[in-house]
Amino acid sequence: MGMSSFDETKHPRGQAGNPGQFSSKNNDAPAGSLGDTSNAPGAPMGPLKVTLLPEPDPRGGFDTRVDAPTGRHYLRGNVPHREDGPAYEGNDGSEVYYQHGELHRDPADGPAVIDEYEGDLVEEFYSHGQLVTP
Questions:
Q1: What span, in angstroms and rounded, lies between the C-alpha atoms of 41 and 106?
Q2: What are the angstrom distances between the C-alpha of 72 and each of 59, 60, 91?
Q3: Where in the sequence does UniProt note compositional bias of the Polar residues kind (predicted)?
Q4: What is the pLDDT, as a whole number, of residue 26?
Q5: Domain assignment of residue 90, given as a range
Q6: CA quadruple 80, 85, 91, 93: dihedral sign
Q7: pLDDT at res. 134
Q8: For the chain, what percent of residues have pLDDT higher than 90?
């Protein structure tokens, strides 16, 4: 005789003579709807669109533009790169400057990262991937 206290007759799945404790519960279909969620936080903002240029843009130096649900990315050789503006322009107003895959913007021109965190403006200065103090 084993040490188990399991009693098959009390198991919720029941037996032929005991259909189970949940057998009388009806599964009701939802009565409401989700409504319009197109403007809800986290809702998709649009499809992904990739534009490949036949040669690098003469001003920006990028060869790929990606329009994503969160913003626009500029790439050169599959790394973030743009010479005439931010390599990332967020739909929320954020901007991030990259050249050759590294955070970079001449501090005299302004910060390489412009964003917002908990309502406060965040500005970070980078030169060739290194955080610098202006």
A1: 34
A2: 17, 14, 8
A3: 18-27
A4: 67
A5: 49-132
A6: positive
A7: 84
A8: 62
Kindly report, residue by residue over 34-80, the tens digit of the pLDDT. 565 555 555 555 688 999 999 999 999 999 999 998 999 999 999 99
Q: Is residue 90 part of a domain?
A: yes
Quick check: is 85 in a domain?
Answer: yes
What tokens does 86 get?
């931010």
Q: pLDDT at position 62, please?
A: 94
The pair of three-digit structure tokens given for residue 35, joined into one six-digit string = 């409504």
Sign of CA dihedral 88, 89, 90, 96: positive
Burial of 38 (0-12, 13-18, 19+ CB in 10 A): exposed
Instruction: Tell me, yes or no, whether 105 lies in a domain.
Output: yes
Number of domains in the chain: 1
Region 95-118: mean pLDDT is 97
61 within some domain = yes
Tell me the two tokens of residue 10: 């009390």
